[in-house]
Amino acid sequence: MEVNKSLIISLIESALAADYTRVRRVGSQLAKRFAEENDFDAAKAIQALLRKRGVPLQTSGYAEALPRDAGSRLPLIEEGQWPTTPIMLNGEAGHTISQFIEDAQNIGLLSEKGVSARLGLLLFGPPGTGKTLLAGHIAASLKRPFYIARLDSLISSRLGETAKNVRGIFDFVPARNAVLFLDEMDAIAKLRDDRHELGELKRVVNTVLQGLDSLTDDVVTIGATNHPHLLDPAIWRRFPYKAELGLPDRDVRKSLWLHFLFEGEGTREDDAAILAVVSKGLNGADIENIALAARRRAILGNQEPSLAEILLAVRASRAGSPRLLDNRELTTADKKALTALLHETGGVSQAEISRIVGVSRQMVHRYLKEASDG
Ligand SMILES: Nc1ncnc2c1ncn2[C@@H]1O[C@H](COP(=O)(O)OP(=O)(O)OP(=O)(O)O)[C@@H](O)[C@H]1O
Ligand SMILES: [Mg+2]
């Protein structure tokens, strides 16, 4: 074929600017030109190259040119890091996730046999239960780059711009080997308000569906939402794997306390078990926040906060609003409340209560008697 000068110049220019998005775009134009000229070998060779992942520029101090919202100039998608902290999951969610990872690892074999499912996983559940963290872990265990698109940041107040932003994301995702994480998926449903034109919700949903359908089979897509019932049923169907991340159960809460508060120290198992019982109803992020507050106090106050102080903070916390440690002596009312709390948990003996609350066993006995006498 006659050399297409402007495409070649444009290709070199974008390569030197480390603009992968443009390299891919110009590259596919070039492949198309070759195909039009019946040079299918050249077209195929270019397409194969375009499927490769670029050198991770973040580590070398460059940032890959990311698609941005035209108005706010905020990036629509970013490359996330693989997490360094562990994830603790309730049994059932853990099972779905291992299944998903195994299927993703063997997608070649599965599609050869004609039994592959689209690698789409929907994570749903209340805030702070580790959905975002888990998506990163899945990318890490698949050793794939992790692209995060926050759908709430895509919503533009400018008509038509939102659908364009969604398109920008799907155009950007490299054809192969990526994990695309669509965070805050319910943001789309919130377009159903009066600031937006009626047709816009439909248009955006359609763009998301088209985008999902345009991805090749081996792209892993993970969606996350706090409000699964708000999702459009057609979007819901695009994710054959679904895992609910509920509030952590007692075993998971114990692991969270052991990890975040006691840094895995085996000698603190009993204390972690008590905290696990008392922290029923809190999410992983709350437990992390309270634990880290206690450790900050230990470092700055030169003295480790007592288990009693931490238990009081837990008692005053609600899901999504953890109460950090009060910096004060325990009052008699605190001691009474704590005694009752530990007694209610069942498994804690009066001797242990006396040690934790810091009062004599006779006093524990008296507090409990007072409480039962009303
Ligand atoms: N199950 C868990 N195991 C380990 N850490 C957890 C867990 N749940 C929460 N955390 C801690 O809380 C932090 C916040 O969790 P994350 O952002 O992943 O929650 P989320 O479900 O995505 O919440 P949101 O719906 O608000 O986006 C995590 O980075 C982690 O430190
Ligand atoms: Mg999240």
TrEMBL record:
Q: Which domain of life is it from?
A: Bacteria
CDD domains tied to this protein: RecA-like_protease (cd19481)
Transmembrane stretches, start-end: none
Keyword ATP-binding among UniProt keywords: yes
GO molecular function list? ATP binding; ATP hydrolysis activity
Determine if Metal-binding is one of this entry's keywords. no
Q: Where is the AAA+ ATPase domain?
A: 117-249
UniProt keyword terms in alphabetical order: ATP-binding, Nucleotide-binding
Q: Which PANTHER family match?
A: 26S PROTEASOME REGULATORY SUBUNIT
- Which protein family is named in the record? Belongs to the AAA ATPase family.
**Name of this chain's protein:** ATPase
